[in-house]
Amino acid sequence: MKPVTKLSTLTAAILLPLALASCATSPAETQESASESGTVAASAPTFADLEAGGANEKDLPSELPDNALDGADLDSARWVGEHEGTDVWLAAPVEGSLYDACILAFPDAQNWTSGCGGGVSGPDQRWYAIVPDGEAPPENSVALSENVYVSAS
């Protein structure tokens, strides 16, 4: 093993910051190099159910507690359908959220569930999956709407 000398320590002190600086890039540099190479950054998923125009067929249940849809933009909530007595709403997340959409499965005031992300396990023990536009639905599921699928029993 070679002993550490002042020269090797000095060389390391000079070369290490240079090597690390060449690895780091700013978001602007990353975007610029991506556009030069022809690659495009992934965009946020879209949900046709949330972009539907016109009046919402059903308002959110008035019996819901205030915190039932934490993380969801309540103004964006859209009723997407009913499955065996369970009404389902899809909503956009609040600004700055890490999630793409939120969902509420509501058979009645005592047995509801909600969440943001990929879906929720409903009170009826079925999985209510949120599927962005253009993505494949889960296996063994039935479409409740364009973006919500329910697991088959």
Automatic annotation (TrEMBL):
Biased composition annotated in UniProt, kind: Polar residues = 26-40
Key words of the record: Signal
Range of residues in the leader sequence: 1-24
Residue ranges of the region described as Disordered: 26-71
Official protein name in the record:
Secreted protein
Q: Which organism is it from?
A: Pseudoclavibacter terrae
